[in-house]
Amino acid sequence: MNIQKSVNSFLKQCKRVLKVAKKPTTEEYLNFSKITAIGIAIIGVIGFVIVLIAQLAGV
């Protein structure tokens, strides 16, 4: 019985989230994509700099 209550509770929470959720507009999607691309580029540059420093240091 306890498992059934927790499953029902979970399904109610999922239903509530889906009611509140909305599809992003084109502008929101483009902004999100730009921010994600900038973040990936920054992480890549940091990784490249670390590898470059390690190679120059002879590690």
Automatic annotation (TrEMBL):
GO cellular component: endomembrane system; plasma membrane
Pfam family name, one: SecE
InterPro entries for the chain: Prot_translocase_SecE_dom_sf, Translocase_Sec61-g, Translocase_SecE/Sec61-g
Domain of life of the source: Archaea
Main subcellular location: membrane
GO molecular function: protein transmembrane transporter activity
Transmembrane stretches, start-end: 35-57
Protein's GO biological process: intracellular protein transmembrane transport; protein secretion; protein targeting
Membrane topology: Single-pass membrane protein
Coiled-coil residues: none
SUPFAM superfamilies, per the entry: Preprotein translocase SecE subunit
Known role: Essential subunit of the Sec protein translocation channel SecYEG. Clamps together the 2 halves of SecY. May contact the channel plug during translocation.
Assembly behavior: Component of the Sec protein translocase complex. Heterotrimer consisting of SecY (alpha), SecG (beta) and SecE (gamma) subunits. The heterotrimers can form oligomers, although 1 heterotrimer is thought to be able to translocate proteins. Interacts with the ribosome. May interact with SecDF, and other proteins may be involved.
Name recorded for this polypeptide: Protein translocase subunit SecE
Gene this chain is encoded by: secE
